[in-house]
Write a structure and sequence with these properties.
cobalamin binding; 519 residues; globular; rSAM_sf; 15 strands; transferase; alpha/beta; iron; catalytic activity
Length: 519
């Protein structure tokens, strides 16, 4: 930024800030019943920024609700904060181009969310800075540094292009107690919400290999106070009228004493919750029922598979033989279970996929979401982080990149289109068997509702199958085995220079950084 412009901005206290949540591609919507009506991360950042800069004008553009950045006066803002998953990023390149054209030259664009954290080299094509972990404090640190004309080298969790043209990664910092709450005024334009999203805690002590969330929020479990949680829920309800909440904590039931305190404080309120947990939550049915009396009637459980080999590959510290018993225990107590069931490992052939889909019905999972193993490339290179899929087998830079329900890898012994067809067929297998197994009217009604929501995503899956059939043609033998040498050569030809550029900024040999990133 030119020095005169920076000096002029430093004199102004009345900043104008636009926060944007990028949305899904029209052809590839998130059709699962857990598709939230907003992602809470950008709202926590916006609320914290507003608190720290009380004179600033902070606005929200929520593309999930049909709002468009082009409908806002983009040339009027000093800062534009953008949150995105990979699929949001690659589905909205035209929107990002529009922002770049329409904003003022001295406007700073900051991108956060999973895509900025794990693919900052892509985010920085359209942003001046990318935030690679928790974003509230770094956003404020960055704005204060820029307003004061100070260097940004001390800003936490920041990625940017340095003076030498290389990717620069600042220190990773994890924060302690989180008193931050969503400012309900940011939800003033919300339509009727099916779910409102909130967080009650951050961090997860476990180390499942596929889970990127721990690198965003850390492994140290940190809670809000029960009083703060209740105040936030009440404020969102007063603003929106929504009394159903999706708790975005990585593992809400980590501490039983905290769960009991939350249950006690929420008793008597007509709120309903979906919370994320582990399957061993079923081992304390007294706690489960205590929480149920306070509205916790649904859980997203980290089940992933019934196959012991798959669970070992994912570093899941659960006993596969006990999963069905535990899931049935939830069903017997009218607790609805959602779970992502992951396919894509080499050991998961078509019969294994079909058996898993049938098992989901036998285990009485109410809302299985069949997904593909997905990775961001260059994670091992940049951060020293484990990857389950090699860089060259990842399908990049398409609207379905990191969408999970859409296959994003080249499997070794199954064409991508066959794996996508397996995911699509898994729903038919599940629903057919679930309606045979499930006799309770209320649960059958839920299955019917979920079936209708899955139906909305079938056209996208079928479209993706046709895309994959063309993409995969050069890379498989007639028997369906991956021509890995050819795929790797083509990947190296396309992304070799990018990999070399990233390697010059790599942190994998920085023990302190890698430890902080993985914590």
């Amino acid at each position: 930024m030119p020095e005169p412009a920076r000096a002029m901005r430093a004199q102004s206290r009345n900043l104008s800030i636009l926060c944007i949540q990028l949305g899904f591609h029209d052809a590839y919507p998130d059709a699962s019943t857990l598709a939230t009506t907003y992602n809470d991360g950008i709202y926590y950042v916006a609320s914290f920024v507003q608190h720290e800069f009380p004179d600033a004008q902070v606005e929200m553009c929520q593309m999930f609700w049909g709002e468009k950045p082009g409908d806002f006066p983009l040339a009027d803002y000093d800062y534009i904060l953008i949150s995105a998953l990979a699929t949001h990023f690659w589905s909205n390149i035209e929107t990002l181009e529009l922002i770049r054209r329409a904003k003022r030259d001295d406007c700073i664009v900051i991108m956060g969310g999973p895509h900025a954290a794990f693919a900052p080299y892509e985010a920085l094509r359209y942003a001046d800075y990318a935030v690679t972990a928790e974003g509230e404090i770094p956003a404020v640190q960055l704005i204060r540094a820029l307003e004061a004309g100070e260097p940004v080298t001390g800003v936490d969790n920041l990625a940017y292009i340095g003076g030498g043209g290389e990717l620069t990664l600042n220190q990773v910092t994890r924060y302690g107690g989180i008193a931050n709450a969503i400012n309900p005024a940011l939800l003033a334009r919300a339509p009727r919400l099916h779910w409102a999203t909130v967080s009650m805690s951050r961090g997860c002590p476990f180390d499942c290999s596929f889970c990127y969330a721990i690198r965003l929020l850390g492994r140290r479990f940190r809670t809000k106070t029960a009083d703060d949680v209740v105040a936030e829920l009440d404020a969102i309800y007063a603003q929106t009228g929504c009394n159903r909440f999706y708790v975005t904590d990585l593992n809400f039931t980590t501490r039983k004493d905290y769960c009991r305190e939350i249950a006690e404080r929420l008793r008597g309120r007509d709120y309903k919750f979906i919370a994320m947990s582990r399957i061993n939550h079923a081992d304390d049915m007294d706690l489960v029922l205590d929480l149920k009396r306070s509205g916790f009637e649904e859980y997203c459980l980290g089940v992933e598979s019934e196959d012991p080999a798959v669970l070992r590959a994912f570093n899941k510290k659960v006993e596969a033989s006990e999963q069905t018993t535990r899931l049935l225990r939830f069903a017997e107590n009218d607790i609805a279970i959602h779970s992502a069931i992951i396919f894509g490992l080499d050991v998961q052939d078509r019969p294994a996929i079909e058996a898993t889909a049938r098992w989901c019905a036998d285990a009485r999972i109410m809302h299985p979401v069949f997904v593909c193993l997905a990775e961001y490339p260059f994670q091992d290179l940049l951060y020293g982080a484990r990857q389950d899929v090699e860089d060259h087998r990842i399908i990049m830079e398409v609207p379905t990149y990191q969408h999970y329900s859409f296959v994003g890898i080249f499997p070794r012994h199954m064409r991508p289109s066959e794996l996508q067809q397996g995911i699509l067929d898994s729903y038919e297998i599940f629903f057919r068997h679930a309606f045979e197994v499930e006799r309770r009217p209320q649960r059958r009604a839920r299955l019917k509702a979920y079936s209708r929501s899955v139906e909305c995503g079938k056209a996208g899956m079928q479209r993706h199958i046709r895309f994959l059939e063309e993409l995969e043609k050069p890379y498989y033998t007639a028997s369906g085995t991956l021509k890995e040498d050819r795929l790797k050569a083509d990947f190296d030809a396309r992304f070799g220079e990018l990999r070399s550029w990233l390697s010059r900024s790599s942190k994998r040999t920085d023990v302190q950084f890698v430890a902080g990133y993985a914590r």
